[in-house]
Amino acid sequence: MVDVSQHKLVPEHTKLDDEAVEDVLQEYNVEKTNLPKIKLKDPALPEDAEPGDVIKIVRNSRTTDKAVVYRLVIE
Amino acid sequence: MQTPKEIGSIQFGLMDPETYRDMSATKVITADTYDDDGYPIDMGLMDPRLGVIDPGLQCRTCGQHSGSCNGHFGHIELAAPVIHVGFTKLIRRLLRSTCRECGRLSLTQEEADEYRDKLGRTKELGDDWSDVMKSAVRQARKAHRCPHCGSPQHDIKHEKPTTYYEVQNVLAGDYSERIAEAMQPDPDDEDDEGVDPVTLANETGLDAERVNQVLAGEFRPVGDDRKALEKALDLDLTEEDMNKLMPSDIRDWFEDIPDDDLVTLGIDPDRSRPEWMILTVLPVPPVTARPSITLDNGQRSEDDLTHKLVDIIRINQRFMENREAGAPQLIIEDLWELLQYHVTTFIDNEISGTPPARHRSGRPLKTLSQRLKGKEGRFRGSLSGKRVNFSARTVISPDPTLSLNEVGVPDRVASEMTQTMNVTERNIDEARQYVRNGPESHPGANYVRRPDGRRLKVTEKNCEELAEKVELGWEVNRHLVDGDIVIFNRQPSLHRMSIMAHEVVVMPYKTFRLNTVVCPPYNADFDGDEMNMHALQNEEARAEARVLMRVQEQILSPRFGENIIGAIQDHISGTYLLTHDNPEFVETQALDLLRATRVDTLPEPAGENEDGQPYWTGQQIFSELLPDDLNMEFTSKVGDTVTIEDGQLTQGTIDEDAVGAFGGEIVDALAKDYSKTRSRIFINEIASLAMRAIMHFGLSIGIDDESIPDEATAQVDEAIDAAYDKIQELIEIYEAGELESLPGRSVDETLEMKIMQRLGKARDSAGEIAEDHFEEDNPAVVMSKSGARASMLNLTQMAGCVGQQAVRGERINRGYEGRTLSHYQPGDLSAEAHGFVENSYRAGLTPREFFFHAMGGREGLVDTAVRTSKSGYLQRRLINALSELEAQYDGSVRDTSGTIVQFEFGEDGTSPVKVSSDDENPIDVENIADRILTSEFSSAEEKERFLGEREPPTNLSEHAEPRVDARAGVESDD
After folding, report:
1. Which of A38, B721, B757, B763 would be B803's cystine partner, CB 3.0–4.6 Å?
2. Structure letter (DSSP) for residue B26
3. ipTM field
C-alpha cells in the first residue's frame, strides 16, 4: 500500500491532544461539531485517529505560506 | 404602526385533528356559498365566521371588518379517513418498518439503540437525519417476523399516489394441477420418466395417502408440506395475494405504534403522531385566503380552492348518505376513492398518476401546493421577489458631463418619486416652498402628513393654502432634487456592482443618463438597455447607501481586487493620442484640453516652438491630473515603460494598462493608496481630458483605413499560395499512404491537424504582412494597440485574410457525403473545399466562402445563447449554496448554524480590494514596506539611520552559497 501521507501533495495531518483541542475550541468559541469534518476512512488521517478526534492540518498557502485548519473526525 | 416581533423559533410538525376542531371557527356542512340575496350561508363555505371580504360586513368571530380581520379557519368532518398526499412516502416507510399486529418497530432492542445513537450524532453534526431514518427503515423491512410479537410480516406495495396493498404469498388455487403437471415425464427428454406418487411421498416425507389427497385436490399442502413439495418437484405453488389497506386500517395500525419507537425513527411523537397523517377532519382555509370576485355583470366567481372545497363537501355528503342507507361495499369504496381524489387534488393538483382536477373551461385548478411552488409561487414570486413602490425604470443613455457618482433622472420621474422630509425649525421654510410649488412644477411635493397621521394630497388647487398650514412635526413628501441618493440597478445582477448608489441630477427628457465609465460594472451599453432606480425611504438607508454603495466606493472589484471602473474605448484612444508621441500644444490648445477639469492654470511651458510661442507637451497636460506625490513605474500595453515621478509623467504611453477599467495601474494605485474620492476625481477628469484630446486630434475610421498597398496584397497571396502548395504536398503524402501519424492520433486526424496548423500559419503571416504596411497613426491600429477596442486579429481579417472557418474546432466537414458542397469533388481535401477563406473582409468573400463563414458564425451564436442560460442557472445554484456564509468579526467564515467554513477568511484574512498585487506577488509587500517607511520618518537621513547600511554578505568560501540553498530544501510547488 502507498502511504499517502508521504506524498508531496498531501498536507501534514496531526492529531491534537485533549488540551490542544480545548484551546482550539476556546479560541474560536465553538463546539466540536461546528468544526469542518473529515471522514475516518480518509487515507491522509494518522493511523491512530478515531471518531471525535480533532486533526490539525497545515497546508501550504499561496498567500500566507502556511494555513492551519482543524477538522473533526467522523465515521 | 405595528412593531416587528422577533421570532424565537419555528417548529414544523403535524397537527392533531382535535386541535383543528378547537381552532375551527365553524364546522362547514353545506357546499353552497351565498343565498339568493347574496348573503353568505351559515355553515357554508363563505360563512361570515370564516372572515369577511365584502366591505361593510362584520366578522362573526373577531368582530373586525374586512381589511383588519385576517380570517379564521373552519373545518369539514370527513365521513371516512383519507390519506394526506404530502406524507405518502412517510406513510409507506412506517407501514414497511412496523409490525402489522402490534405496531412496534421491527428492530431488535440493540438495533434500535444503535439507530437512536446514530440519529443523535447526525443531528449534532448538522447532517441530514432522514438518511438515518431511511437506513433504519431498510433494516426493519428485512424482518419477516416481528421481533416483539413474532407475527409474520408482509411486504407493502405502494400504488401511487395514495393506495397501499399488503402482499402475501398464498397457495395457488390450481395447486393440484401444477403438481400433476410437474410429475409428468418431460416429452422432449427421453430419459425423464417423471415422478410417481410413491417416490414423491418418499422424497417429501409425506404419507402416500396424503400425496394422493393432494393430487386429488382434497388436501391443501400449507407451510412445511408446501415447501417440501416445492423442493422435490422444483416448482412454485404460490401466487401473490394483494390485500388493499384502507385509510382507516392504516390509521388503526399507526395508532398502535408506541411513542418510543417513533423517536428511534426521528419523529417527535408529542408533535407528530403518525395517525395524524391520515385526515379525519379537513381544515377549511379562511375566506380571505380564497376571496370570490364579482364580475362586471354582477356574477360572483369563486376561487379555485372554494371550487375544490365544494367538490369535497358534496362527495362527503353523498358518502354519508350512502353509508346510512346501507349501500353495497362496492359503492362505498368507489365513493371513498372519489373523496380521496378530491382531498388529494385540494392539496396538490400536479400529482403524477392522477388526472388534475379541472375548471369548467378545462384549465387545471390552482390548489394549495400550486400556490406555493415554483417561480411564480408564494416563496419565489411573492416573498423573495416582491414588487416595490418608489421605483422607476427607463432606457439609459450616456452623458459624459455627469460625474460617475451621478445619474440623470428625468423630471417626470423625479416628480413622481418622493423623499420624506420631517419638518423642523431649520427646514420649515424650505418645506413650505416645496408644498407651495404643488405636485406638478418640479421641486414640489405630492403629499403631506399631519402629526395625527392623516395624509393629505397636495393638489394644484390646495397647494398655496396647504403650504401655510405646514408646521413643525409634519412630514412633507417632496420631489427628488439634485443631490438626493438613489439606488440604481441593471439586470442581470450578477455581482455587487450591479446595484450601486448614485446622486440625482434632475434633467429634461425621458431617459436615465449615466457617465460612460460606469458601463463596465453594470455591463451596460446604450443600444436600448433599460435600468431600474429606487428612491430610498429612510435616513438609515440613505446613510448606508451613501457610505457603502456609492459608485466611487465600488471602484475596486472584489472579484479580482483591481479597479472595475476606469477609462474605456474612446477615453483610452484619447489618452493614447495625447501621450504616445508626446505632441506639443500651444496655450489655447492646452487650456482647451483641460477646460472640463479642475485645472485652471498651466505649469511652466516645456519650451518654445518655431513661432516663438510657448508650448506644453501631452505628458505634461496628462500629469496635471495626477496627485503631486505619485510615483510609479510599469509597462504599458503598447510595451514601453511608463514612469511617473512626483506626479509627473516623464515617459511612456498612457493606454488601457494605465487608466483602463479592469485593472488600470494608475486608477488602481489611486484607489488603494490615496482615497476613493481622489480616484473618482481622477477618473472623471481622465474621461473629460480624453474626450477633449480625441476631439483635438480626430479619430475616425473608414474602408480605406484597412486597405494595404498592392505589393502587400501580392505578398499575402504569395503566403497563401505557399500554404496551398504545402497542403497539396501533405495530401499527396497522405494519399500515397506515407503520412506518419502523430502519437495518439489516426492518420486522418494527423492530416487534418497538419493542414489546420499550416492554414493558421498562413493567416498569421498574412496578418503580419498587413500589420507591417499599416501606418502607426492608422486609427484602427491606434485603437487596437492602446486597448481601446478591436484586436490585431480583427485588423488582419479586415486587411489580410479571414482564415479558416471552424465548426466544433475542426475544418468544415459536414454537408454531403465526402464533400461540403456540390461544387467540389467527393474526397477533396483541399483548403478551399473545407472552409478556408482566403479573401479579406475588405476584399469581399466569394459565395462559397460566405457560406462557410456563416456556418462558423452560426456556431458562435448558438454557443453564446447556450452558455448564458447554462451559466445563469449555475450561478443561481452557487448563490443559493453560499448565501448563508458570512465573515465573522474574529476573521473566520461560518454558516448560519455556526459551522466553520474557513478559519481565516481566504486563508490570509485580507480583503482582495485592500491589497495591491501583481502577477508575481500575491501581496506587494515591498511596496507597502517602502510606503510605510517613507511616512514613518521625516527625512531620508533618519530613515537611513534606522535601516542601517546594508553590508554585502561576507564571502567565507566559494562553497558557501550552494550549501545555504541545500539547507533550505526543495522549493514547494505553490
Report:
1. B763
2. -
3. 0.93
